[in-house]
Amino acid sequence: MTSAANSSGALPASVDAMLELLTSRGYLAERALATVTYLSLRMGRPLFLEGEAGVGKTEIAKVLSAALGRKLIRLQCYEGLDVSSAVYEWNSAAQMIAIRMAEAAGDTDRDQLSSDIFADRYMIKRPLLQALEPDVAGPPVLLIDELDRADEAFEAFLLEILSDFQVTIPEFGTVKAPHPPIVIITSNRTREIHDALKRRCLYHWVDYPAAERELAIVKTRVPGISAKLSQQVVRFVQALRNQDFYKSPGVAETIDWATALSELDARSLAPQVVGDTLGALLKYQDDITRMQGDALQKVLKDATTD
């Protein structure tokens, strides 16, 4: 895909063009991921990405938004997320002022007043409703991030949006997108997502990258790192993922660690610098404690042996 096509917001015309688009923004995707992303765009279907935290699921939405020149609308899910936070709520203060002003003016037509106060101008639009609105740059990228953190009841609410790209508001009516947004849904699989939602999406499991691809990612995202250090970093991280940790490091942690080591002007991995920077890789104290002494020496030796 040419840069002109990218800047115009045109969708990729092939899987190879999708790979080129992602690569141009520093996202080195495997072909299977590029294929399902391409199909999601061409078919107008939501893309459901599942995998461990830090493997690059959220980044896909950011890259598509930047590369296609589309607005990125992000809904960060959490326990207790409801319609008022995700879709809309009424500006009750403004509505009350309108009612008081109507009463002061002697307007007693209750039906007309009810119609007036539930107009668009009194509606506070949240991410899901914003994503259904027309945009001169083209349909936005809607990122529904970490859906597994939300309650199952919220999943049920999403079914109408993901099927028909519309939402029904009792006091207002049905709002339907003139053109479907590009929808990316992510899950860290802390719980299973219901089949009814998955059926409305194209699905892909985003796994940890193989060593060769992770090395290419590190070189792309940390351009100042030496070849020797980047290889040792990737070997070390790949070895850690074979350990029985509460949370294995993702690609995001690999990049953070490589960046930290570069900032410390490290040229190779040594016990002192590794021990001092393990917090960039491992986020739980039990995991860090487990990687002390002989365990650290063994992994470090394997990573630094040519």
Automatic annotation (TrEMBL):
Pfam families on file: AAA_5 (PF07728)
SMART domains per the UniProt record, alphabetical: AAA (SM00382)
Cross-referenced InterPro entries: AAA+_ATPase, ATPase_dyneun-rel_AAA, CbbQ/NirQ/NorQ/GpvN, P-loop_NTPase
Coiled coil: none
Residue ranges annotated for the AAA+ ATPase domain, each copy included: 43-221
Protein name per UniProt: MoxR family ATPase
Species lineage: Bacteria, Pseudomonadati, Pseudomonadota, Alphaproteobacteria, Hyphomicrobiales
